[in-house]
Amino acid sequence: MLRVENLVKCYQNGNELLYALNSVSLSIEEGEFVVILGPSGSGKSTLLNVISGLETPDSGSVIYDDYEIFGLNQKELTMFRRDKTAFIFQAYHLLPFINVEANIRMGTDLKGSQNISEIIDGVGLRGLEHRLPYELSGGQQQRVSIARALAKKPDFLFCDEPTGALDEVTSKQILTYLKELQNQLEFTIIMVTHNVSIAQIASKVIKMTSGRIVEIINNAHPRNVN
Ligand code: ADP
Ligand code: ADP
């Protein structure tokens, strides 16, 4: 269980304080597929980054099972992030001088290394393993970053607009694969998206406006990708 309590994160905006997060609380069960929806600037990415330990809040807590991640020291926090979490960003952050397969292998240990070939098939990159990132289209690069995150076999997968660079057909293929893998491995997905149709396949939808959660919808029967 993941509990988020009273998160506040402010930025200075001229003479005013801008609340990117204004007392945000929620809880997430293991194995959930959580989608965070909301207009641009509503705090979605900030929430994702704080929950994953990438950014520190001004106040509030993020508690995984029984430890508060902002009570960890820097080394413990790094280990938590390395061992338990993976990130799919909008920008791909691929290493430019190593090929697709080596990029996917980045950050995996023995736990994750056997399934690389399966993942390459799953995200539709078979045949492109030996290309360098610049030899790929934007959509293909995004698929490499998705594969790299999955190869880590994380307990928590954080995604910020993971299908933003993909066409609709590829996007559905990837989401179908992501759900299949989630059913198999039972990891938790927390995803920021503008895409309302992704919300229909989520188990929980969190709607944000101006740094606050305005609605939480629990989907007892999430749809399949269609
Ligand atoms: P969303 O992901 O919903 O578009 P963000 O979490 O990126 O929203 O941003 C929430 C608010 O916080 C926005 O008003 C944004 O301009 C502001 N913000 C985010 N990061 C910073 C930053 N590093 N410095 C100043 N303001 C920021
Ligand atoms: P996607 O929908 O996967 O983003 P695109 O429509 O952008 O694909 O690209 C179509 C094809 O063009 C791809 O199969 C890719 O191999 C090729 N391609 C796109 N950009 C490049 C590039 N910079 N170098 C080599 N091939 C490219």
UniProtKB/TrEMBL annotation:
Signal sequence coordinates: none
PROSITE patterns hit by this protein: ABC_TRANSPORTER_1 (PS00211), ABC_TRANSPORTER_2 (PS50893)
GO molecular function: ATP binding
InterPro entries: AAA+_ATPase, ABC_transporter-like_ATP-bd, ABC_transporter-like_CS, MacB-like_ATP-bd, P-loop_NTPase
CDD domains assigned to the protein according to its UniProt record, in alphabetical order: ABC_MJ0796_LolCDE_FtsE (cd03255)
Annotated ranges, domain ABC transporter: 2-226
Keywords noted in UniProt: ATP-binding, Nucleotide-binding, Transport
Highest rank taxon of the organism: Bacteria
Family from the record: Belongs to the ABC transporter superfamily.
Protein name: ATP-binding cassette domain-containing protein
Species per Swiss-Prot/TrEMBL record: Lysinibacillus pakistanensis
